[in-house]
Every structure is written in C-alpha cells, then in structure tokens.
Amino acid sequence: MVYKFEFRHYRRKFLTPLITSHGVWENRDGVILYLKDEVGKVGWGEISPISWFGSESLSQAVSFCQELANNVTDETIDSIPDELPACQFGFESAREMIETNNSFTFQSHKNLTCSGLLPAGKAALNQWQKLWENDTDTFKWKIGVYPIAEEISIFELLIRELPAFTKLRLDANGGLSYREAEVWLQKCDDININDDIHLEIEFLEQPLSVKQFWEMLELSRLYTTKIALDESVATLKQLQECYHKGWREIFVIKAGIVGFPSRLRQFCLAHKIDTVFSSVFETCIGREAALLLAAELSPQKRAVGFGVNHFFVEDEQICLDNLWKTISSTL
User: Fold this and answer.
1) What is the pLDDT of residues 57-102, one digit of tens each?
2) Catalytic annotation, pick one of 140, 142, 167, 187
3) 303-331: average pLDDT
4) pLDDT-derived band of residue 129, with 50, 70 and 90 as boundaries?
5) Could you report the per-residue pLDDT of 226-265, keeping only the tens digit for each?
6) What is the CATH number of domain 114-311?
7) For residues 313 and 14, is the Cβ–Cβ distance under 8 A?
8) Is 142 among the residues known to form the active site?
9) Which of 53, 181, 296, 321 could make an SS bond with 207 (beta carbons 3.0 to 4.6 A apart)?
C-alpha cells in the first residue's frame, strides 16, 4: 500500500515549567503525521519523543520525516528502526487508524479512569482540589526533586488533605538514592496499614535510576508497597528485558515512545503483565491511539496517567486546528 504523507511540527507551552528529577521542561514539541491511502481513507499519528526518557530526540524524528518522500509504503513503516520508537508508534498508529476505519470517537476507552498529575513540592497542596472537582480520585505526585526531609513534610500534609478512599502514586523519575527509596517505601507501608488514614499509596514509581534494576527488584521483595518501573521500560526492548530478568510488579507504559503498537500488543497479551498506561504530554491524536491500547492491555484496570492537559497554556484544539490548516493548504 502507498500512502500520501504530510507532517507538521507543533509546540505547546507548559503553563508552569514541569519540574522533575531530570530538570525543567518548558515546552512540549512534537510532530503530527497525516497519511491517506489510495482510496482516500485518512489516518492521523503523532510523534512525541522524550529523548531524556529513552526515545529519539525531536531533531532525529524530524530528520527522519524529512528524508521520506511525499508518499510512503507499508515497507517504509515496517522498517523504521528501533532507535526511533516514537516514530514507530506515530506511523503505525496512523496506519492502524486507516486499517480499522477508526475516527476519534473516544468510545472504546470511555470506561477508563484517569489519574491526575500534581506538581512537585508545595504546589501540590493547592492543585489537587481542582482535579478532585473534575472526578479524579487517583493522584500522582512528583518526588525526588527537593530534599527528602522537605518532601516528607509536604507528603504528610498531602495525605491528610486528600479525600478518603483516594489513591496516591509517587513518581521519583529515578531520582532517589537506595536509602531514600527505603525511607519512602517504609513510609508508604506504614500509611497503607494505618487505620486512621483512609487513603492508599498505590505504588512508588521508578525510585532508582535505570542502571539500578537489581536494587529495585530487591526493594520490591522487601516492602509491601508496589514499585512501578517507568524509565526502565521506556521502549519495548527494555520492557522485555526487565520482564525476562524477573520483574513482575507494575510496568508503566508510555505508548507514545514504546515503539510499534502491534509488537507491544503481542507481548502484553502473551505475558499478561500488570500495566499502567501513561501520557507523554501528547495531543489528543497521540492520546487516542495510546488509550485504545490501554483499554485493550490493562487487565488490572488501573487508572491511566493521562490527566495532564491542565499543564498547558494553549488549548490543544487550537493547536490542532492551526496544524490542520497548514496541512490542508498543501493537500
């Protein structure tokens, strides 16, 4: 099959720069893909790389798109190298949209629940209320950004402010030392058995660096609070490696950078892993493709991590309308 191909770069500014243990992130840049087959069916895809997370860079993705002609084939898509996992996801999800005659109906994943992302530090104490008012009952808070004593102090305030029977996820982005991870896990274990606190610490996400897999495996066996791997399983190859090394707790899957959806689907269905699908701060184009996978590949029905749109200045519909106008003008 031969497809007509167009692409456009987009940039969305964060309302407040996103602070993680990797540094400060001010803008979300990505690429929107447009494919049209020989009978006129259209597919949309999105390339949303995060180079510091393990994918290709934006410049590598744009260079790849620039090297392609105005027409691409199935062979072109199938041969995208593993070094370009965000490109693999974007192109194959656009093709799958054509193959399944899918449009953005948002029906197949309507029963998914969504967690809300809280900012690092004290700002979390002022932002959970708005998410709660929008029916969010699972929250994710960034840690490993400020000194641990300061974060523990904020954490103790946060768990007493959050409504009863909500869930809280802690995301360290690999920023803790082994000893700090022990402190957090013991704290979480204590809270989860405290009858006076009607809140669950669902898991601690990526407490240590990617290089410390064996230490995280050890911690997962020493504490009852679950650990979720994130940076360690950024791509499908990494996910497979961690599984074969013995990881059986939670896998956070950022579909937008994991690689080909078909290969991810095959692995997850074969091994029935415990998954949490998470955003890469994509637009609704990439999010739709990711949530379709989440609905299919989330046996534990954990809340997906896509409650992030409140972090942006510009409404994504305005962003996409502008892109559509520039693409339409060339068709």
Assistant:
1) 999 999 999 999 899 999 999 999 999 999 999 999 999 999 987 6
2) 142
3) 68
4) very high
5) 999 999 999 999 999 999 999 999 999 999 999 999 999 9
6) 3.20.20.120
7) yes
8) yes
9) 181
Q: In what order do the strands lie in the sheet with 226-229?
A: 274-277, 250-253, 226-229, 199-205, 166-171, 138-142, 114-118, 304-307
Q: How far apart are CA 217 and CA 44, in angstroms?
A: 39
Beta bridge partners of 170: 141, 204
**Any idea which residue has 């940039």 for tokens?**
11
Q: How far is CA 216 from CA 179, 181, 221, 226, in A?
A: 12, 9, 9, 11
> Mean of the per-residue pLDDT values for the chain?
91
Say which CATH superfamily domain 2-104+314-328 falls into: Enolase-like, N-terminal domain (3.30.390.10)
Q: How many CA atoms lie within 13 A of 75 on its CB side?
A: 1
DSSP annotation of 278 reads B
Catalytic residue, chosen from 36, 167, 187, 254, is 254
pLDDT of 194 reads 86
Which residues belong to CATH 3.30.390.10 in the chain? 2-104+314-328
